[in-house]
Write the structure tokens for this entry.
Amino acid sequence: FASVSSHYDVAPSILAFLNKNYNIKKPSMAAWLGDGLDTARAFRNVHRYPLIQTKATIIDFVMGSYHLNDEKLFTLSPEMDEIEITEYATMKQIKAEFSRFKQRNDRFAAGAKLIPDSLFRKYNGSN
């Protein structure tokens, strides 16, 4: 397939496969970021993901056919080549989405729970 997927998409895909083929129960809520592998044959990206180069900085974000790198915006080709572009409205929209991601990420880094305790206990075997 030629569509974009990330390591974020592996866990939801494996669990969906196990659920469908082996009747493994899956929780109604999950803490992962991914939606599942996109297996489209044509190039596309339906995801909105950060690209983390180091654990200390997150300055890259991929959304649709765009890659935001700090203050530069690029379009992605099917070969994953990048062409720098100047589209201020698109950059503003992508920066806003990236900002929302970082805000949510900061809440979890500060101690917010990823899933409710009741769901954790149910699938962890704790009572």
Remarks:
- The beta strands are 48-51, 60-63, 66-69, 72-76, 82-85.
- Residues 4 and 45 are 5 Å apart (CA to CA).
